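quick one, 196 residues, struct below
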Amino acid sequence: GWALKKLLDEVLASAGGEEHIEQALLGALGEAERLKVETMLMAARGALAGAKMPIVLEMIREHEEAGEKLVVFSCHRGPVELLKDRESWEKIEGADSRKAREDAQKRFKEEGKGLAMTLAGGEGITLHCDGACATMIRVDLHWNPGVNQQVVDRLHRVGQTQMVRVMDIIADHPVDAIVHRVLTEKEKLLHAVGLD
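---
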């Protein structure tokens, strides 16, 4: 509430600008407060992912009308839960057994229109689409650029014959701005040391 806003305003003023806000925040907060802010940020990211779903649903309708299969990825369960009940859509989440993941992947490949998955749900998954699906919507991005690339790499694997297309949904919102800025800085560092 008000106390957090006041703290953020004070930290921003003392940080010397928005580009130094993360370091200033971490320096100003103790461990308990830092965990509280991280929890609030995660909740805000989850809510923002949900707020993006009307545009995602419109994009899905367009792809379905064109007869194109689609993978939708989210770091959060909310968007995946929303999509799992769509006709001919499959979902893969972290709580699913290996057999359930394999069965969902098989149904998606054979007759599905779409596959919704979370980060944990996709671990160890190779989407054997044999080129049947080359489009992914990422509702939100992970803080780690390597993880974001691994999600896309699932479409590049065995049998892919098409150009893979990835559409990231980035909101005009401070939370997405922070994530984008952090990812950009991490990608620059990876590039500087030759790990891109």
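The chain has eight helices and five strands.
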